[in-house]
Write a structure and sequence with these properties.
Elements lengths: L8 E5 L2 H10 L7 E2 L4 E5 L5 E6 L9 E6 L3 H10 L4 E2 L6 E4 L2 E4 L3 E7 L5 E7 L5
Parallel strand pairs: 1-4, 5-10
Antiparallel strand pairs: 2-3, 3-4, 6-9, 7-8, 8-9, 9-10
């Protein structure tokens, strides 16, 4: 049954070498497996596994495709900016912005960026009062 299954994310990349460099240099991640130069498998210390695979359809999604749940969003945004990651600011109703970090009542805070392939990623911190 799906209720007892694990889920993995699949992130598209037009250029797998460029994506590998971005994930290593900007996000500090190294693949745990290279599947013949067409798919890279990553696993975080938090136990999440995801794949970056080569396709011509990379960067075409108009929404967030991966979200990193963090304990200290200010520190993560600061560290990523120091590595050259540019953050996005969107016009969204009901959202209060403090620089690149959005605050959403009862949900927490989030910041969005694009990877080397144009995919929208997010780092977020849950609102502890709502938890």
């Amino acid at each position: 049954m799906l209720t007892t299954s694990r889920v993995e994310a699949n992130i598209p990349a037009a250029d797998l070498g460029r994506a590998r460099a971005f994930y290593a240099d900007k996000l500090g991640l190294s693949p745990i497996r290279d599947m013949g130069g067409v798919n890279l498998v990553y696993e975080t210390e938090g136990g999440t596994r995801f794949n970056v695979y080569e396709t011509t359809f990379a960067g075409q999604a108009g929404h967030t495709i991966a979200q990193w749940h963090v304990d200290d969003i200010e520190a993560e945004v600061h560290d990523l900016k120091a590595k050259g990651v540019d953050f996005e600011v969107y016009d969204m109703p009901g959202v209060r912005w403090d620089g690149e970090i959005a605050s959403m009542e009862g949900l927490g805070r989030a910041a969005w960026f694009k990877d080397s392939e144009g995919n929208t990623m997010c780092v977020d911190q849950e609102d502890r009062a709502a938890g």
